[in-house]
Amino acid sequence: MSEVRKNYVRPLDIKHGQVDMAHGSGGRAMAQLIEELFAKYLGNEYLAQGDDGALLPNPGEGRLVMATDSHVVSPLFFPGGDIGCLSVHGTINDVAMMGARPLYLSAGFILEEGFKLADLARIVQSMAAAAKEAGVPVVTGDTKVVERGKGDGVFITTTGVGVVAPGRELSGRYAKPGDVILVSGTLGDHGMAIMAERESLGFESPIVSDTAALHGLIEAMRASGADIHVLRDPTRGGLATTLNEIAKQSGVGMMLQEKALPVTPAVNAACEFLGLDPLYVANEGKLVAICAEADAEKLLAAMQAHPLGAAAAIVGTVHEDAHHFVQMTTGFGGRRIVDWLSGEQLPRIC
Amino acid sequence: MKYIDEFRDGEVAKGLAEAIRREANPARSYHFMEFCGGHTHAISRYGVSDLLPPNVKMIHGPGCPVCVLPIGRVDQAIRLALEQGVTLCTYGDCLRVPASDGLSLMKAKARGGDIRMVYSSADAVALAQKNPNKQVVFFAIGFETTTPPTAVAIKQAAALGLKNFSVLCCHVLTPSAISSILESPEVRQWGTVPLDGFIGPAHVSTIIGSRPYEFFAEEYRKPVVIAGFEPLDVMQAIKMLIRQVNEGRAEVENEFSRAVDRDGNKKAQQLVAEVFEMRKHFEWRGLNILPYSALRIRSQFAEFDAEKRFPLGYQSVADHKACECGAILRGVKRPQDCKIFGTVCTPENPVGSCMVSSEGACAAHYTYGRYKDV
Of A269, A320, B67, B335, which one is least surrounded by beta carbons within 10 A? Predict the structure, then answer.
């Protein structure tokens, strides 16, 4: 769009317009979509460079962490969030779980022909708000359009870059026998919020997604001085699957206490009703931390002092086990395996 | 959760475990079959067996709806989706049941079949209403609990005059399965399956009542205690069974009196009788062909019968040679006795139907209890 003769370009009709194939053509329509929608809301000094890539300052000492995540959630808008903020939180959390400070994001959009520009604007605004709140700008992006019926509204892939300070190292490989397992809050809220919105299920619930960026909580946890060995966000597959991944990576076994697991009554009831187990339902604003036993109480106190960790709890311990089983003492008094998620519990949850 | 947590209370369980230990005669052993998959799941999920004394053993029964579904029936559903191009709706657990040619409904979906998971038969009717140009078939499976909703769906479709809705009816009957187990040579002649009593179905009994089990108690001298699906229900029922055995009684007792009475749900029974009639015989996985053990749609509602609407012809297909699902469903073998358990056959790649549903004996043992085997 010319800066001189603005009026020669008809503005994008965000209220009534729809995405058409021209918006992905690389031509004027695409430039206009970027300028009037993406740049308008997500704008920052790096995005404003307008080149093929973003030129970023050297982050200084430490190592770089990079993580990527594609988002295909259905429905696009759900109680507590939408695909926009989810795509920002999801990737920031992946970077943060490595102990890194998230610095920048990229965003790739695959739009379906006919998708309402009003919905796209809502999503981009939500991304912008989430990025601003987290202090992590979207510095580069891409848009493609596929024919009607070849996509489902919009898919968003975000990539995040962060920097981890020298000497810090977290990995799923570092859980040790004797360690303690903590979770930062209630389990299953995101998955059940999505489930309740699916039209085919026809039940109403007050459950709200927990989608949130967790790097602030992690900073508070680190500031406590606790010796954290592992951090991970239990998204798809829930806490059960995440713990099985860690047990396998670290070559250890785990024992959970069912009574200690934080689950809201609403999520519990919805899971009961649908025959699901909250241990397998996705979270988007929760983390699992594994730390040395001596530091567990200190770490728990630091988590509970942060708004995103208010319902944090110690839920289990790590022990030696050649089979890498994650087990649980049930509230009933028995013992059972908490297995990997088998098959697909809830498709397109994030 | 009110009315749920009370039945999962660990403190009460401790007390009940102690009472069972006192009740059980250490000089003998007790073998009880929990008929329903719901009980199998509760026992594994809550670790009920950990609370039982070593001389009280549970045997898993055949009451898991997808476990007893024979390959031939799943093949029919797959053919409807792939060859007839219908929209096939069914309950979630059905999707992964292994069928012929390495297929399952889920794999047929990946091949382009329009296969949808629904939570209720009413969803399938709604789908047919919404898509008048598409034939919608509800693949109806399950015991007496899921039968009345299917009857309602057929009556609804009739009332709405739907021309694009039909049902592939594979509903089966609990009493036939119990007879088949009690009549099996392992129980009756050889005594290789010791069986001292049954935990009777929970949800099925809310429909059919406790009366149908009276025959088994009397004729076969086996005590039956109907129990709810919560772990405390199961433990209480075990205690009642032990007491019956000790006193030499074989009666039908009802632990689940909060939901079950002797006559069951008359309205549901009438509805089922109005829409369905007995099949002369029906193939079950593991139990073979059982006479008068399943339902078909009455001729009055023939237009909603997928077996009449589409050229389907039933073809019986044998299970995988090494698969022991048949013996496991009859209580003759345990999951860990099967050579392919946990090696070739896993929840990700089930060979037999018992590895599919969380109510299946193999899936329950694999998912919750396999630490006991190592």
Answer: A320
